[in-house]
Amino acid sequence: MTQPPPRSPTPGLAPELAVSHWFNTEVAFSLAALRGQVVMLHAFQMLCAGCVMQATPQAVRLWRQFRADGLQVIGLHTVFEHHEVMTPRALAVYLSEFRIPFPVGVDLAQPGERIPLTMAAYELQGTPSTVLIDRAGRLRYQHFGQESESALAGLITGILEET
Questions:
Q1: Angle between helices 56-66 and 149-161 (to 10 degrees)
Q2: How many CB atoms lie within 10 A of CB 96?
């Protein structure tokens, strides 16, 4: 199910990521710096059963399948519940134990709010969520929940083949 594009300060472009901490990378990622690449944003929580059992392993497989073709997968740990136990330290252990190879950012919390900034900017309904952004930085696909890997691979292939 494709959802309408979220609000963005630049019309037509996907909202920028708001991240408090990065894992599996030496540099902080920004969508502006990734222009020219296709980006798959994998929004998850480490205590989300659908994420742990299906969506995150699927994101790893898609990263392996398409990284040589120019797909940049970025994990977004977006905590909107159980804040007290889903700390960056716990996330570091989770990423190591589950061997998550791609960069993962921690969605920036909004003081006094349950929903973190990137989750709010994209109007994500929960986790797992998948967002595809084309080489021009435009939001092309957004989905909440589990989805067919072959259908998602088809969408990625189509966007990667665009010039």
A1: 40
A2: 11
The pTM score is 0.89
H/E element holding 76?
strand 71-77
Per residue in 114-156, pLDDT tens?
899 999 999 999 999 999 999 999 999 999 999 999 999 999 9
d(CA 47, CA 50): 9
What CATH number is associated with residue 146?
A: 3.40.30.10
Q: pLDDT by residue (tens digit) across 51-82?
A: 999 999 999 999 999 999 999 999 999 987 76
Structural domain boundaries enclosing 32 = 19-161
Q: Which of 65, 74, 63 is CA-nearest to residue 14? A: 74
Per the structure, how many domains does the chain have? 1
Q: Give the contacts of 20 (CB within 8 A, at least 6 positions apart).
A: 88, 105, 106, 107, 108, 109
